[in-house]
Amino acid sequence: MSDNGRHEKGMALRAELLGPKFVERMNQNTYQDPIMQKFRDVAAESVFGSLWTREGLDLKTRTLVCVISDAATGREPELALHLRMARRQGWSEEELSEALLHLTGYVGAPLVREAMLTASKVFKDINENGMD
Predict the structure, then answer these.
(1) Any idea where the domains of the chain sit in the sequence?
(2) Are 21 and 132 in contact (CB under 8 A)?
(3) Phi, psi at 131, each rounded to 5°
(4) Is the pTM of this model over 0.90?
(5) Mean pLDDT of 100-119
(6) Which fold has domain 57-132?
(7) Mean of pLDDT values over 73-78
């Protein structure tokens, strides 16, 4: 990793957005694999440490941008993460559901259906286990 501070900032922001307990579970499961650790580190520096920390948009807006782009491109695993981030940033289930439903006329019902199924699972998990 480079020594520019972006990695550390990115790792801290990632924990803030997802919740420290959730990140710890991800680190113990997905990121136990050395190859996935490399991905996590690159994403922490380049995505969270550079893109997410730019001026111009607040974190709440950035999470909604990610939710919409994931749903529109059928990226369900990423959508689940970004929905969790969006809830932690203050978006309600109703607002996020409505944003996804709004996409029906633009990206089609099949993508929105998959996104709604993902949202339903994430919201259930959050309601049963908390945001972290």
Answers:
(1) 1-54, 57-132
(2) yes
(3) -70, -30
(4) yes
(5) 98
(6) AhpD-like (1.20.1290)
(7) 97
